[in-house]
Amino acid sequence: MQARTWLPIVLAAGEGTRMRSRLPKVLHVLGGRPLLGHVLAAVRAAGGAEAAVVIGPDHEPVAAAAREVFPSAAVFVQAERRGTAHAVLAARPAIERGFDDIVVAFGDTPLIRPETLARLRKSLAGGAAVVVLGFRPKDPAGYGRLVVHGHDLVAVREEKDATQAERAIGLCNAGLIAFSGRHALAILDRIGNANAKREFYLTDAVEIARTMGHTVAAIEAEEEGEVRGINTKAQLAGAEAELQQRLRAAALEAGVTMIAPETVHLAADTKLGAEVEIEPYVVFGPGVIVDDGAVIRSFSRLEGAHVGPGAIVGPFARLRPGALIGAGAHIGNFVEVKEAIIEAGAKANHLAYIGDARVGEGANLGAGTITCNYDGRDKHRTDIGKGAFIGSNSSLVAPVTIGDHAYVGSGSVITHDVPAGALALGRTRQVVKEGWAALLRALPPKRKKVPTAE
Ligand code: UD1
Ligand code: MG
Q: Of all helices (H) and strands (E), which one includes residue 291?
C-alpha cells in the first residue's frame, strides 16, 4: 500500500497583541527558535514533505522564518483576519493539489509533538473525515468545548457561543484539526460566520461534517503542556520551562552528565555527544554542537559554536557564532571566541578575545591576549601558527600572521607578521633607576613635582 500523502497547514496570521511587542507573535523565541519554527520542526519530524503556512499581510519576516526551518514551505497571505476556517482557506491552492490528509496546526502552539500529528493522521486513516485534538486543561476558560454524546463528537462550541451547560465541559479543543483531503474543501466551504464573533470558525467543521454523513472523531492529547497556546509573555516563559524540561530529560537520557540540570539552559537544536559533561549554569544559544567527552564548565554561554571531542570550555567562557574548538583544546575563564578556529590541543586559559582568527594546533595564548580584529571600519584576520606562544597581555593587530612555533613577548603590540620560530617583542624596553625610591622619599613635603625617571 502506498503511504498516505499529507499537507500540514500552519496558521500564523495573528498579530499577538497581548505579547505587547511589535514582533509578530510566532517569531517570539522558545529554546532559541521562533514559535513557528517549532511547529514546522514537529511537522518535519512527523515526516512532512510539504507544508503550507498562512501569514498576515506585511509579515514577510514570518515567511522567512518559516523557510529557514522548512525551505519548501508554501506561504499564503490571509489579507483579513476573519477566523480560523477563513485562514485555512487562504491555503486553498495547496489543498486543491490533492492530499490524503490535511492537518491544521497553530503557529502559536509550539510544543506539539510529532507523535500527536501522527495520531491525528492515524484516525483519518481509520475512516474519519474530521479529527479534533482534545485536551483537559486545568482552566478551560477561553477554549472551545468538545460536545460529546456517548462516543460521538457532535460539536465544538466556542466559549462565547456556549450555553452554561456546555461551558461546564472539561474536554477542550487544543486547536489541531485534521481533515480527509477528499472532503476538506467541501466541508470548509460550508462554514459560515453566524456566531458571536462573526468569524469563520474552523471548529464548525465538526457539525457540518456530521450533517454531510461523515465520521467525526476526537483524540486526546497526553499532556496539557504539549498544546499550550502562547498569547502572553508569561505563557511564553511557561512554555520555555516546559521545553527546557523536555530537552534536559532527553540529554540526561542520552548520557550527558549534568549535576544541576535545572540550571542548564539548552536550545531546541543543541547537539550533545556521548559522555559530555555540563556543569551548572551554562546557557546554550542556537546552533551549538558539543562532541564526545567535552566538558563545559559553569557560567559559560555558547552560540553557533562547535566544541570538539574532549575539549574543555569555561568556566566563564563565551563562544560566539563561528567558534570552532578543536579536539582537546582548552578555553578558560573570561575568554571570548568569535568566528575563529582553535585547533586541536591549543589553549587560551584566561582573559582573552579571539575573533576572526586561526589558532594553530597546540598553540598557547597567554592571559590577556587580544586579537585586534576591527579597525573601526573592517574586520581583519589573525593567523597564529601551530605551537606558537603568545605572551600575556599581547595585542595582535590584524591582519597579522604569527608563524609556527614563534614567540611573542608579553605585553607586545604586534603590528607586523612574525616569521616561524622567531621571537617578536613589540613594547618599550624596561628602564631601571637604582636608588630612585630613596630619592623620592628624601624630597621635602608638598613638592610641586616628582623627579622623572630620566
Ligand atoms: C481556537 C479555537 C478554539 C480552541 C483554541 C485553542 C477556533 C474557532 N477556535 O480559538 O476552539 O480551543 O483555538 O487554542 O478555531 N488565525 C489566523 N487567522 C485568523 C484567525 C486565527 O491565522 O483569521 C490563527 C492565529 O494566529 C492562531 C490560530 O489561528 O495561531 C488560532 O486563532 P485564535 O484567535 O488564537 O483562536 P482562539 O480564539 O484561541
Ligand atoms: Mg488562541
A: none
Pocket-testing residue among 23, 106, 197, ligand 1, by greatest number of atoms within 8 A of Cβ:
106
Catalytic residue, candidates 350, 380, 405, 416: 350
- One of 3.40.50.410, 3.40.440.10, 3.30.750.24, 2.160.10.10 is the CATH number of 233-424, namely 2.160.10.10
Could you confirm whether 183 is annotated as catalytic?
Answer: no
Mean pLDDT of successive 10-residue stretches along the chain, which has 454 residues: 89 89 94 97 95 95 95 96 97 97 97 96 96 94 92 92 95 96 98 94 97 96 89 94 96 98 98 98 98 98 98 98 98 98 98 98 98 97 98 98 98 98 96 95 78 62
6-227, CATH topology level: Spore Coat Polysaccharide Biosynthesis Protein SpsA; Chain A (3.90.550)
